[in-house]
């Protein structure tokens, strides 16, 4: 599928701030011109944009605004083609035991198998993972069972959590949004020994679709299947992550893949009013 995405985030500060520093993960990581056709990032007040690749190979823009300012706008436009690894590669049928034989497990996969900032392998999570996956041997089949359980038993409830909500709170409250369900799924997969990572991006909700989380930046989980690679699962919608899912960044959890993160200096009363405008338009009907 081919999409055009427009994403603008606007901050209006109640008092002027200065020395603002921001990192922006709004450009897909790929350098393939057949996949990423166009990418443009505009910031106002105008600044000099720089970029780097972070430890998870995400494409990160960063900028500083030393002068006092009362507002900040970050506007991203991309045109991108998507595909799905499920089209030519079936991840099912790979036993959990194969994870112990994976040669990359100690180096490349270890960060996705242990506790991170918003995810922990608590005793409660361990017990729940065992209960959900009792008798299931396949790596991907375990992940599918966890996804289905979250979708069935957790309430999708916007405005009940925040960007800093930890997995343990979601486990207890049984409610949240895509970010929360993704953290929970990652944690439960990790208790099963399955490498799992966080994906931030966008979700296309077509005219006949009824998908949750398409009105803003979306999040889902990817699990690693030995000999097959990474495969996405969307616990918010209980579906595989396919061509409708536009992947931008990955990491251990939201902290590594947040679309925008930063800080500024200013008085306590300078907290910002936030507005996000997002359009995901399909181009290849």
Explain this structure:
By secondary structure, the protein is α+β, with helices and mostly antiparallel strands. 18% of the residues lie in helices and 39% in strands. It is globular. It folds into two domains: 2-82 and 259-282, Immunoglobulin-like, CATH 2.60.40; 96-257, C8orf32 fold (Roll), CATH 3.10.620.30. The protein starts with a strand and ends with a strand. Strand 3 and strand 4 (59-65) form a beta hairpin.
Question: Brief description of this entry?
Answer:
The chain is an alpha+beta fold.
How many distinct folded domains? 2
Low-confidence stretches: none
Number of strands: 14
Q: Give helix % range.
A: 10-25%
Nearest-integer average pLDDT: 94
Say what the CATH topology of the largest domain is. Answer: C8orf32 fold
Total helices: the number is: 5
Q: How many strands, what sense, and barrel or not for the largest sheet?
A: 7 strands, antiparallel
First-to-last CA distance:
9 Å
Globally, the shape reads globular
Q: Note the quaternary state here.
A: single chain
Can you identify the CATH class of the largest domain?
Answer: Alpha Beta
Q: Which labels suit this protein?
A:
Immunoglobulin-like; globular; 7-stranded antiparallel beta sheet; 5 helices; 5-stranded antiparallel beta sheet; 285 residues; C8orf32 fold; alpha+beta
How are the secondary structure elements laid out?
Elements: E1 2-27, E2 36-44, E3 50-53, E4 59-65, E5 69-81, H1 123-132, H2 139-153, E6 155-156, H3 167-173, E7 175-176, H4 178-191, E8 196-203, E9 218-225, E10 229-234, E11 239-240, E12 245-251, H5 254-257, E13 260-265, E14 272-282
Parallel strand pairs: 6-7
Antiparallel strand pairs: 1-4, 1-5, 1-13, 1-14, 2-5, 3-4, 8-9, 8-12, 9-10, 10-11
